[in-house]
# Entry
Amino acid sequence: MYKALRVAYVLLLVTGVIFGYFWYAFSTHVETVLKALEPDVRVEYAYLRVSPFVGVSIHDVDVHSPHFADSIHIAAVKLDELNTFGLFNIDRSLKRDTLPKSLRLRVQQLTFDLYGDAFRQRRELFSTYHSLGCDDAAAWNLDMLRGMGYRTIRVDGAVDYNFDEFTHRLAAKALVHADKIASFEAEATFAVPRPSALLATLPTLSFITLQQAPPQLVNAEVMLRDDSFNSRKNRLCAQKRGDSVEGFIAEHLRQAPKTMQARGMTFGPGLVEAYRQYITAQDGQVTVTAQPENSLELAEFSSRPPELLLKLMNLAAQVNGEAITNLSVAFHDPILPEPSVVESPAPIEDTQAPLPETTLSDNPRLSAPATRPAENAAPSTTARSTAPPKSLLALPTVKISPELSAESPATRWLTLKTPQNRSLRIPTTELSEYVDQSAIVTLTDGRAHKGKLAAVTRSNLQLGLEIPGGTVGFTIQLDEIEEIRLLP
# Structure
């Protein structure tokens, strides 16, 4: 009996030491991430828990930004890993600046108040049929959300992936569920190229290796399922129009394609009919799959013309379980739509009886008004035909317009942020003054690289990355750089 108690005591002590180590290790990882987000984002949390039943979790998280007057609250962020060896592997990978071979992360109850401090000046809603964006398929703004009865944004999400070392395939899945709004699911498989001889000593999923040999898309599937958002929008816009829901939908289907033409896209009859079925069905669902014949490098998504990219992805789509047989779409110069003749004379005020109160997804498209691409979009570097749009199967010829061609590297300007967080606009000819300084270089496609500025020429920048056993350098074209942040 005494020996059994001693064994139990030792096991309890060892377990306490192991989970104490995990608590310290993951607390350190969390603090490292939070410091990297400053000063743009400040995150506070109540406590971190390590448990054999729920893995690692952070509770009562508040996200603050100096650019926004309110905060976003998250009930919990959880790392689902109930295996002790799995936690050891994740800890070791993070210490080596490497992605773990498998990971599952959940976000529970991300909440944002539509009537919070950020919108204190907008208590009364003087909105009209047009200001709500009722004629636009993608216009979801604050006035519309409030008018539909939503008071808070609340969303649950999960992301997980698994890397197969034998096939060098990475399978990833993401799920976002917004109560009474919609659910979004995405699954994709990526081929991870094997490291070059220079980087052979590094793990396949190290950040440096993934930057030099980005994953390639093998296949993907995305699904969007409505959960009463469409019916709420239809009722609100019909009320503002002074018409029945059926009358509003008929007008909306006439005007919505024109708003997409203002963004430089014309959808064929198959996609317009699929959109009608989606917004009129209860719990409508759209599924899109991509099965490219050859795997696509992620860089191709920003470098190839959209017409060719869609063709290479070999898309198939379904709406409400039925296949969409005609996926024709054309890209062209923006065509401004004629305004609808309907305008509501009466504004919606906060005292008006709203639709049933509920919560809303944290979709950035829902919380920001749609912009007019003709006024806000950056000028295109390609001249597109102004002739009537063609089918996707008949791709137009893309030519470079002389007046829109890229400017000389010697006259190009970019943003430079100093260690004191001052933003400067400098010509690329002055970059040579910052050689040998450590920096984070952000490209126009959103990717970022951290290293030492090794050399600058008239057309490119050499960035050096420290790796075990030496330094690896690579070239970045100056016209691909959006911002350079100097590090202390």
